[in-house]
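@channel sequence for tomorrow's demo:
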Amino acid sequence: MKLKQKDLLGLEYLSKEEIELIIQTAKPFKNLFTRTVKKVPTLRGKTVVLLFYEPSTRTRTSFELAAKRLSADTIGISVSASSVVKGESLIDTVKTIEAMKADFVVLRHGMSGAAHIVSKTISASVINAGDGMHEHPTQGLLDIFTILEKKEKIKGLNVAIIGDILHSRVARSNIWGLNKLGANVFVVGPATLIPAEIEKLNVEVHHNIEKIMHKLDVINILRIQRERQEQNLFPTFEEYSEIFGINSYKLRNAKNDIVIMHPGPMNRGAEISSEVAESKNSVITEQVTNGIAIRMSVLYLLAGGDGGESETFNS
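C-alpha coordinates (generated this afternoon):
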Protein backbone atom coordinates (compact mmCIF):
# COMPACT_ATOMS: atom_id res chain seq x y z
CA MET A 1 0.00 0.00 0.00
CA LYS A 2 1.16 3.55 -0.77
CA LEU A 3 0.07 7.06 0.13
CA LYS A 4 -2.36 8.58 -2.35
CA GLN A 5 -0.97 12.13 -2.38
CA LYS A 6 2.45 13.68 -2.90
CA ASP A 7 2.12 15.85 0.23
CA LEU A 8 1.35 15.52 3.93
CA LEU A 9 -0.75 18.57 4.77
CA GLY A 10 -2.91 17.33 7.65
CA LEU A 11 -4.56 14.29 9.17
CA GLU A 12 -7.91 15.68 8.07
CA TYR A 13 -6.97 14.69 4.52
CA LEU A 14 -5.69 11.16 5.24
CA SER A 15 -7.84 8.07 5.35
CA LYS A 16 -7.85 5.76 8.33
CA GLU A 17 -5.87 3.26 6.26
CA GLU A 18 -3.21 5.83 5.36
CA ILE A 19 -2.76 6.81 9.01
CA GLU A 20 -2.36 3.14 9.90
CA LEU A 21 0.10 2.71 7.03
CA ILE A 22 2.35 5.53 8.25
CA ILE A 23 2.37 4.17 11.79
CA GLN A 24 2.93 0.59 10.68
CA THR A 25 5.84 1.69 8.46
CA ALA A 26 7.39 3.63 11.35
CA LYS A 27 7.85 0.45 13.40
CA PRO A 28 10.82 -1.03 11.48
CA PHE A 29 12.39 2.42 11.29
CA LYS A 30 12.26 2.65 15.09
CA ASN A 31 13.91 -0.76 15.32
CA LEU A 32 16.77 0.75 13.31
CA PHE A 33 17.63 2.93 16.32
CA THR A 34 18.96 -0.11 18.21
CA ARG A 35 21.59 -0.80 15.55
CA THR A 36 25.17 0.41 15.72
CA VAL A 37 24.77 2.13 12.34
CA LYS A 38 21.43 3.92 12.47
CA LYS A 39 21.27 4.63 8.76
CA VAL A 40 19.81 3.13 5.58
CA PRO A 41 20.37 4.19 1.94
CA THR A 42 16.65 4.53 1.14
CA LEU A 43 16.66 8.22 0.11
CA ARG A 44 20.23 8.52 -1.13
CA GLY A 45 20.38 11.28 -3.74
CA LYS A 46 17.22 13.00 -2.46
CA THR A 47 17.25 16.50 -0.99
CA VAL A 48 15.11 17.64 1.94
CA VAL A 49 14.79 21.40 2.56
CA LEU A 50 13.76 22.50 6.05
CA LEU A 51 12.00 25.85 5.67
CA PHE A 52 10.97 27.14 9.10
CA TYR A 53 9.41 30.58 9.51
CA GLU A 54 8.87 29.98 13.23
CA PRO A 55 11.25 28.79 15.97
CA SER A 56 11.54 25.03 16.47
CA THR A 57 13.89 22.65 18.23
CA ARG A 58 12.18 19.26 18.38
CA THR A 59 10.40 19.21 15.04
CA ARG A 60 13.24 20.66 12.99
CA THR A 61 15.91 18.47 14.56
CA SER A 62 13.65 15.42 14.29
CA PHE A 63 13.05 15.95 10.56
CA GLU A 64 16.76 16.53 9.96
CA LEU A 65 17.71 13.35 11.79
CA ALA A 66 14.98 11.41 9.98
CA ALA A 67 16.22 12.59 6.58
CA LYS A 68 19.87 11.87 7.38
CA ARG A 69 19.09 8.40 8.69
CA LEU A 70 17.47 7.72 5.31
CA SER A 71 20.69 9.04 3.66
CA ALA A 72 19.03 12.13 2.18
CA ASP A 73 20.84 15.46 1.90
CA THR A 74 19.37 18.19 4.09
CA ILE A 75 19.40 21.97 3.79
CA GLY A 76 18.12 24.14 6.60
CA ILE A 77 17.01 27.64 5.65
CA SER A 78 17.11 30.21 8.40
CA VAL A 79 14.42 32.69 7.44
CA SER A 80 16.04 35.45 9.50
CA ALA A 81 19.16 35.14 7.34
CA SER A 82 17.42 34.62 3.99
CA SER A 83 15.93 36.83 1.30
CA VAL A 84 12.66 36.81 3.26
CA VAL A 85 14.04 39.68 5.35
CA LYS A 86 14.43 41.59 2.06
CA GLY A 87 10.75 41.15 1.32
CA GLU A 88 10.73 37.93 -0.69
CA SER A 89 7.35 36.19 -0.59
CA LEU A 90 6.75 32.62 0.47
CA ILE A 91 5.82 31.70 -3.12
CA ASP A 92 9.03 33.15 -4.54
CA THR A 93 11.08 31.44 -1.85
CA VAL A 94 9.65 27.99 -2.57
CA LYS A 95 9.94 28.49 -6.34
CA THR A 96 13.63 29.22 -5.82
CA ILE A 97 13.94 26.05 -3.76
CA GLU A 98 12.18 24.08 -6.50
CA ALA A 99 14.58 25.49 -9.10
CA MET A 100 17.38 23.95 -7.03
CA LYS A 101 15.70 20.55 -7.56
CA ALA A 102 14.69 19.84 -3.98
CA ASP A 103 12.60 16.70 -3.54
CA PHE A 104 10.94 17.62 -0.23
CA VAL A 105 10.07 20.89 1.47
CA VAL A 106 9.33 20.65 5.18
CA LEU A 107 7.49 23.87 5.99
CA ARG A 108 6.60 25.55 9.26
CA HIS A 109 4.74 28.83 8.89
CA GLY A 110 2.65 31.08 11.08
CA MET A 111 -0.17 31.33 8.55
CA SER A 112 -2.85 28.64 8.56
CA GLY A 113 -3.04 27.12 5.10
CA ALA A 114 0.52 28.03 4.09
CA ALA A 115 1.44 24.41 3.37
CA HIS A 116 -1.60 24.05 1.08
CA ILE A 117 -0.56 27.10 -0.93
CA VAL A 118 2.98 25.80 -1.32
CA SER A 119 1.80 22.33 -2.32
CA LYS A 120 -0.14 23.81 -5.23
CA THR A 121 2.85 25.90 -6.29
CA ILE A 122 5.67 23.36 -6.51
CA SER A 123 6.01 19.76 -7.65
CA ALA A 124 8.19 18.72 -4.70
CA SER A 125 6.53 16.90 -1.83
CA VAL A 126 5.43 19.34 0.88
CA ILE A 127 5.29 18.25 4.51
CA ASN A 128 3.40 20.50 6.88
CA ALA A 129 5.51 20.94 10.03
CA GLY A 130 2.89 23.24 11.56
CA ASP A 131 0.86 25.97 9.89
CA GLY A 132 -0.65 28.63 12.12
CA MET A 133 -3.55 27.26 14.14
CA HIS A 134 -4.41 24.63 11.52
CA GLU A 135 -2.50 21.33 11.84
CA HIS A 136 0.77 19.68 12.83
CA PRO A 137 0.26 16.25 11.25
CA THR A 138 3.52 14.51 12.16
CA GLN A 139 3.01 15.47 15.82
CA GLY A 140 -0.46 13.94 15.70
CA LEU A 141 0.96 10.79 14.10
CA LEU A 142 3.76 10.40 16.64
CA ASP A 143 1.30 10.92 19.48
CA ILE A 144 -0.94 8.17 18.11
CA PHE A 145 2.08 5.92 17.57
CA THR A 146 3.12 6.44 21.19
CA ILE A 147 -0.38 5.69 22.52
CA LEU A 148 -0.52 2.54 20.42
CA GLU A 149 2.80 1.32 21.82
CA LYS A 150 1.51 1.72 25.38
CA LYS A 151 -2.10 0.63 24.96
CA GLU A 152 -1.86 -1.71 21.95
CA LYS A 153 -5.04 -0.23 20.54
CA ILE A 154 -6.67 3.10 19.77
CA LYS A 155 -10.34 2.21 19.31
CA GLY A 156 -12.40 2.79 22.44
CA LEU A 157 -9.72 4.64 24.40
CA ASN A 158 -10.71 7.80 26.26
CA VAL A 159 -8.20 10.51 25.35
CA ALA A 160 -8.27 14.01 26.84
CA ILE A 161 -6.46 16.95 25.26
CA ILE A 162 -6.10 19.69 27.85
CA GLY A 163 -5.09 23.33 27.49
CA ASP A 164 -5.17 25.93 24.74
CA ILE A 165 -7.30 24.09 22.20
CA LEU A 166 -8.17 27.34 20.40
CA HIS A 167 -4.67 28.03 19.10
CA SER A 168 -3.33 24.47 19.00
CA ARG A 169 -2.48 22.85 15.68
CA VAL A 170 -1.36 19.80 17.71
CA ALA A 171 -4.86 19.45 19.15
CA ARG A 172 -6.49 19.56 15.72
CA SER A 173 -4.22 16.91 14.24
CA ASN A 174 -4.77 14.66 17.25
CA ILE A 175 -8.53 15.13 17.05
CA TRP A 176 -8.67 14.20 13.35
CA GLY A 177 -6.38 11.20 13.74
CA LEU A 178 -7.80 9.79 16.96
CA ASN A 179 -11.38 10.09 15.72
CA LYS A 180 -10.56 8.25 12.51
CA LEU A 181 -9.05 5.41 14.52
CA GLY A 182 -12.04 5.14 16.87
CA ALA A 183 -10.92 6.84 20.09
CA ASN A 184 -13.25 8.90 22.30
CA VAL A 185 -11.77 12.41 22.40
CA PHE A 186 -12.32 14.97 25.15
CA VAL A 187 -11.07 18.57 25.06
CA VAL A 188 -10.56 20.37 28.36
CA GLY A 189 -9.71 23.98 29.11
CA PRO A 190 -11.03 27.44 29.95
CA ALA A 191 -14.05 28.46 27.87
CA THR A 192 -11.95 31.23 26.30
CA LEU A 193 -9.51 28.64 24.93
CA ILE A 194 -12.09 26.25 23.47
CA PRO A 195 -13.09 26.97 19.84
CA ALA A 196 -16.76 27.63 19.15
CA GLU A 197 -18.65 24.61 17.81
CA ILE A 198 -15.68 22.28 18.24
CA GLU A 199 -18.22 19.59 19.14
CA LYS A 200 -18.78 19.28 15.39
CA LEU A 201 -15.38 17.55 15.26
CA ASN A 202 -16.87 14.74 17.36
CA VAL A 203 -15.32 15.69 20.70
CA GLU A 204 -16.72 16.22 24.18
CA VAL A 205 -16.00 19.59 25.81
CA HIS A 206 -15.20 19.85 29.52
CA HIS A 207 -13.94 22.60 31.78
CA ASN A 208 -12.99 20.45 34.77
CA ILE A 209 -10.43 17.71 34.24
CA GLU A 210 -10.96 16.19 37.69
CA LYS A 211 -14.59 15.29 36.89
CA ILE A 212 -13.54 12.99 34.04
CA MET A 213 -10.10 11.89 35.28
CA HIS A 214 -11.32 8.47 36.46
CA LYS A 215 -12.39 7.42 32.97
CA LEU A 216 -9.33 8.61 31.02
CA ASP A 217 -6.73 6.34 29.41
CA VAL A 218 -4.56 9.15 28.04
CA ILE A 219 -3.98 12.83 28.83
CA ASN A 220 -2.24 14.98 26.23
CA ILE A 221 -1.20 18.23 27.93
CA LEU A 222 -0.71 21.24 25.67
CA ARG A 223 1.79 24.01 26.28
CA ILE A 224 0.51 27.29 27.64
CA GLN A 225 1.30 29.63 24.78
CA ARG A 226 2.69 32.59 26.70
CA GLU A 227 2.70 34.66 23.53
CA ARG A 228 -1.12 34.42 23.53
CA GLN A 229 -1.41 35.83 27.04
CA GLU A 230 -1.32 39.34 25.56
CA GLN A 231 -4.90 38.62 24.51
CA ASN A 232 -5.90 38.12 28.18
CA LEU A 233 -7.64 34.82 27.50
CA PHE A 234 -7.13 33.76 31.12
CA PRO A 235 -6.35 35.92 34.17
CA THR A 236 -2.90 34.66 35.25
CA PHE A 237 -0.62 31.67 34.74
CA GLU A 238 -0.96 30.89 38.44
CA GLU A 239 -4.74 30.65 38.18
CA TYR A 240 -4.53 28.57 35.02
CA SER A 241 -2.09 26.20 36.71
CA GLU A 242 -4.30 25.83 39.77
CA ILE A 243 -7.37 24.89 37.72
CA PHE A 244 -5.95 23.13 34.67
CA GLY A 245 -2.34 22.27 35.48
CA ILE A 246 -1.75 18.53 35.83
CA ASN A 247 -0.10 17.52 39.10
CA SER A 248 -0.12 14.47 41.36
CA TYR A 249 -3.19 15.67 43.25
CA LYS A 250 -5.29 15.95 40.10
CA LEU A 251 -4.17 12.42 39.15
CA ARG A 252 -5.28 10.91 42.47
CA ASN A 253 -8.35 9.27 40.88
CA ALA A 254 -6.67 8.38 37.60
CA LYS A 255 -6.17 4.84 36.31
CA ASN A 256 -2.85 3.32 37.36
CA ASP A 257 -1.80 2.91 33.75
CA ILE A 258 -2.89 6.33 32.48
CA VAL A 259 -0.55 7.69 29.80
CA ILE A 260 0.72 11.26 30.25
CA MET A 261 1.82 13.10 27.10
CA HIS A 262 3.12 16.55 26.20
CA PRO A 263 4.26 17.73 22.74
CA GLY A 264 6.86 20.10 24.23
CA PRO A 265 8.35 22.42 25.07
CA MET A 266 7.01 22.15 28.62
CA ASN A 267 6.32 24.97 31.05
CA ARG A 268 7.14 22.97 34.18
CA GLY A 269 5.09 24.04 37.15
CA ALA A 270 2.49 25.62 34.90
CA GLU A 271 0.55 23.16 32.69
CA ILE A 272 2.46 20.19 34.11
CA SER A 273 4.36 19.57 37.33
CA SER A 274 7.90 18.20 37.28
CA GLU A 275 6.73 15.23 39.34
CA VAL A 276 4.18 14.26 36.68
CA ALA A 277 6.59 14.93 33.80
CA GLU A 278 9.12 12.55 35.34
CA SER A 279 6.62 9.92 36.51
CA LYS A 280 6.38 6.31 35.30
CA ASN A 281 3.21 7.24 33.41
CA SER A 282 4.96 9.94 31.38
CA VAL A 283 5.93 9.12 27.78
CA ILE A 284 7.23 12.56 26.89
CA THR A 285 10.76 11.47 25.98
CA GLU A 286 9.36 8.48 24.07
CA GLN A 287 7.29 10.91 21.99
CA VAL A 288 10.52 12.60 20.89
CA THR A 289 12.09 9.27 19.86
CA ASN A 290 8.94 8.19 18.05
CA GLY A 291 8.90 11.48 16.18
CA ILE A 292 12.04 10.50 14.28
CA ALA A 293 10.56 7.13 13.28
CA ILE A 294 7.28 8.71 12.15
CA ARG A 295 9.09 11.34 10.08
CA MET A 296 11.28 8.67 8.49
CA SER A 297 8.11 6.79 7.61
CA VAL A 298 6.50 9.90 6.08
CA LEU A 299 9.57 10.75 3.98
CA TYR A 300 9.89 7.15 2.79
CA LEU A 301 6.23 6.82 1.83
CA LEU A 302 6.04 10.22 0.11
CA ALA A 303 9.09 9.18 -1.92
CA GLY A 304 6.95 6.35 -3.29
CA GLY A 305 7.88 3.66 -0.83
CA ASP A 306 5.52 0.75 -0.30
CA GLY A 307 4.67 0.25 3.36
CA GLY A 308 3.09 -3.14 2.80
CA GLU A 309 -0.27 -4.10 4.20
CA SER A 310 -1.44 -1.81 6.98
CA GLU A 311 -2.66 -3.49 10.13
CA THR A 312 -5.72 -2.32 11.98
CA PHE A 313 -5.50 -0.95 15.51
CA ASN A 314 -9.05 -1.66 16.59
CA SER A 315 -8.71 -4.80 18.70
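heads up for whoever presents: Strands lie at 47-52, 73-78, 104-109, 125-131, 158-162, 184-188, 204-206, 218-221, 259-261.
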